[in-house]
UniProtKB/TrEMBL annotation:
Residues 178-468 form the 6-phosphogluconate dehydrogenase C-terminal domain. One of its GO terms (molecular function) is phosphogluconate dehydrogenase (decarboxylating) activity. SUPFAM superfamilies: 6-phosphogluconate dehydrogenase C-terminal domain-like, NAD(P)-binding Rossmann-fold domains. Its EC number is 1.1.1.44. It catalyses: 6-phospho-D-gluconate + NADP(+) = D-ribulose 5-phosphate + CO2 + NADPH. PANTHER family: 6-PHOSPHOGLUCONATE DEHYDROGENASE (PTHR11811). Belongs to the 6-phosphogluconate dehydrogenase family. The gene is gndA. InterPro entries: 6-PGluconate_DH-like_C_sf, 6PGD_dom2, 6PGDH_C, 6PGDH_Gnd/GntZ, 6PGDH_NADP-bd, NAD(P)-bd_dom_sf, Pgluconate_DH. It comes from the Bacteria. Pfam families: 6PGD, NAD_binding_2. This is 6-phosphogluconate dehydrogenase, decarboxylating.
Length: 480
């Protein structure tokens, strides 16, 4: 036994993670893949790396020092279960099995229960940053027991991305906490991308600027408070010219957005938890709408405003309004995402440090941004902050942005340009701010048709109006 860490599954993610591990002082990396060819190729292509190739689970186990520590990077779902079974057959009590795939957090909870009942440590770990992150430094979101973190922590700190001198990894919480946080990360990523896409669309159709000109605008924005990886790559994509047609690449790409399902998981989970992540939901639905080509094909003749409805008198002023609307909507999207993490932690009993989560997203992952420092500051000042966007920094930013935000949403509605994420985040913001909500009327309706009862503003208790009798009010048992 000579390897201190092992990787099972040597497709693009696993082989890059194995190379990253091997490049760090002190690591010797056991590598194993179901089909031998990937192992042979990895070892042959990287003679510089300290790999110990294994060609069976027995060899793999024998090559690892105790406690054996192995990261699984295989296709999520059944393959992960199959590999866990195989590892449990050759590992010993106290060894550590880590799933770095994109597992649903409820699967991780189930797996941790089964694996720990058998005497092993199980860690579900979110890995963000794609192939490049895996190789050069990902953002890592491990869950699992404290005992595993003692062995695993130093190894992960060695390979994670570094942001402002700190490694982008923290022990998020027990069992499914890491995969839960990774899921919400991806949901926030959907919202952020949709907001950027709406900003591009409004500027393009409102000012007639070319994609290359808009690329310059995004590059400029990337020097300010919006500075982030997604803004940076947006400029790159918009500047790209298609070699075949000479057109902007963005005009050649089919306008149907794909999805691998983590955005939908975030929304489904939020519905179960009762957390309004409207920005993430709108972003997920906007992708769905875009990909329903057959419905879009029969809808082009639906009436809309006349083209003259959208004339922007001062292009520069409008672009600045869009920038502010984007920033405000982004604050809402992140606030909603952190609200989901808070609610998930309460539901599943995880002790998640929200400030630490925002810090590990500052490097390695797709949503890395300056902005995350502001979130960390907010939670440093008040770890129990009930609504992130009520932190003083965000209140100031929203105050600065709100007139522009309202104007952009007004223009989008008047001109018939869809801005679902901009407008729903504004509606969420105004809903939170409202002194009274029409939920009172909804309670009245519910009481009318279902005797669901209501509470009164002026006295304690639960009440029901006898709607189908003389409409007097009676005290009722609380039935919701
Ligand atoms: P894939 O998801 O394409 O999975 C391929 C790997 O899974 C191969 O090594 C394959 O082995 C192995 N495998 C499949 N079925 C089995 C099985 N029944 N038993 C053993 N091994 C099996 O690989 P990726 O590298 O793209 O991703 C790995 C994991 O990382 C996935 O869970 C993915 O969701 C996650 N992830 C991916 C990111 C990305 O950007 N791609 C980012 C973050 C996480 P064989 O060669 O024998 O077929």
């Amino acid at each position: 036994a000579e390897a201190n860490i092992g990787v099972v599954g040597l497709a693009v993610m696993g082989s890059n993670l194995a190379r990253n591990l091997a490049s760090r002082e002190g690591n010797t990396v056991a590598v194993f893949n179901r089909s031998r060819s990937k192992t042979d190729e990895l070892v042959a292509a990287h003679p510089e790396a300290e790999f110990v190739p294994a060609f069976s689970y027995e060899e793999f186990a024998a090559s690892l020092t105790v406690p054996r520590t192995a990261i699984i990077m295989v296709k999520a779902g059944k393959p992960t279960d199959a590999v866990i079974e195989s590892l449990m057959a050759v590992f010993e009590s106290g060894d550590i099995i880590i799933d770095g795939g994109n597992a649903l957090f409820t699967d991780t909870i189930r797996r941790e229960n089964a694996v720990s009942d058998a005497g092993f440590n199980f860690v579900g770990m979110g890995v963000s940053g794609g192939e490049e992150g895996a190789l050069l430094g990902p953002s890592l979101m491990p869950g699992g027991p404290d005992a595993a973190w003692v062995t695993l922590g130093p190894i992960l700190k060695g390979i994670a991305a570094v942001a402002e001198g700190e490694p982008c990894v923290t022990h998020v919480g027990h069992d499914g906490a890491g995969h839960f946080v990774k899921m919400v990360h991806n949901g926030i990523e959907y919202a952020d991308m949709q907001l950027i896409a709406e900003a591009y669309d409004l500027i393009r159709r409102g000012t007639g600027k070319s994609p290359a000109e808009i690329a310059d605008i995004f590059a400029e924005w990337n020097r300010g408070e919006l500075e982030s990886y997604l803004i940076e790559i947006t400029a790159e994509v918009l500047r790209q010219v298609d070699a075949t047609t000479g057109k902007p690449l963005v005009d050649v790409i089919v306008d149907e957005a794909g999805a691998k399902g983590t955005g939908a998981w975030t929304v489904q989970t939020a519905l179960d938890l009762g957390v309004p992540v409207s920005g993430i939901a709108e972003a997920t639905f906007a992708r769905s709408l875009s990909s329903h080509r057959e419905q879009r094909d029969v809808s082009g003749s639906l009436p809309g405003p006349s083209p003259e409805a959208f004339t922007v008198a001062d292009a520069d002023a409008f672009i600045e309004q869009v920038r502010l609307a984007l920033y405000a909507s982004k604050i809402v999207a992140y606030s909603q995402g952190f609200d989901e993490i808070r609610a998930g932690a309460a539901q599943y009993g995880w002790n998640i440090d929200l400030g630490a989560v925002s810090k590990i997203w500052r490097g390695g992952c797709i949503i890395r941004a300056q902005f995350l420092n502001r979130i960390a500051d907010a939670y440093d000042a008040d770890a129990e902050l009930p609504v992130l966007l009520t932190a003083p920094y965000f209140v100031e930013a929203l105050g600065r942005a709100q007139d522009a935000w309202r104007e952009v949403v007004r223009i989008s509605a008047a001109s018939g340009i869809p801005a679902p994420a901009f407008s729903s985040s504004l509606a969420y913001y105004d809903g939170l701010r409202a002194d009274r909500l029409p939920a009172a009327l909804i309670q009245g309706q519910r009481d009318f048709f279902g005797a669901h009862t209501y509470r009164r503003t002026d006295k304690p208790g639960t009440f029901h109006t006898l709607w189908s009798a003389d409409r007097t009010e009676i005290e009722a048992e609380d039935t919701h």
